[in-house]
Design a protein that fits this description.
single chain; 250 residues; Serine Threonine Protein Phosphatase 5, Tetratricopeptide repeat; 2 domains; 12 helices
Amino acid sequence: MVLHVLYLIFNEGYTATSGHELARAELTGEAIRLARELRRLLPEDGEVAGLLALMLLTDARRPARTTPDGSLVPLAEQNRERWNRELIREGESLVTDSLSRTPLGPYQIQAAIAAVHDEAERAEETDWSQILALYGLLERISDNPMVTLNRAVALSMVRGPRAGLALLEGLEADGRLAGHPRLDAVRAHLLEMAGDFAGARASYRTAARRTTSLPERRYLEGRAARAREDEHDPLLPTETDRTRYERGAK
C-alpha cells in the first residue's frame, strides 16, 4: 500500500490530472525522496528498489517532455540528449541488482520496461519485442487494464496496428477503462498507424474532450488536426515502416 501511494504521488507529479501545467515537479521530487528513504530502511526489498528505479528512469526524461511554452513532446520526438543520464544509470543499476537477487514484482518489471526505453539512443532503436514480452509478463501478475492498454501499443509496434486494435476490443468490453481518455488516445494512435485517418481524428477529439489536463488536450487536438491522409507524421509508423520497427525500433 505504501508503495502504491508513493507511485500515485509520483504519477500525479509527472502528469498532472488537471490544470494548465503538464507536471508538478515538487510532487515527483517528494515521491523520489520518500522512495529513497524507504530504500534506505528496506535495502533488501526488491519492489522498493524497483519502484525507486521506475521513478528515476521515468523522471530522467522530464527535461525533454515539454517545449519552452509548456507543450507536450511525445516520447518518440524527445531530444534524448536532454535526458538525465545520471538518473538513468542509477535506475538501471537498481533494477538490474534487484532482478538478479529478489523475487520478481510488478514495479521491477515496469522499471525494466522504462530501462529498455531509456537505453535506446534513438527512438527507432527501441527494442519493442523486449518491451512486449515484459508487458506480457506484467499482465500475468497484475490484473490492471492499463497494462493491457500499454501492451496493445507494444504489440502494434511489433506486429502492426491491427493486432493492437484487436486487443483494444477486449479492453472496451471489459469496461474498467470506459471513458478514460488514454483508451481513446491509444485507439486514435493505432487507427492513424493503420491509415484510418477519419477514425483517428474522431478518437483524438474524444480523448481531448475527456482529459482534464490542458497540455494533453492541446496535444490531442493538434494530433487530430494533423491526422490527414496527405500528411505523414513521423511520430506514427505506417505499415510500410513496420519492418524497420520490427528490427528493434520504437
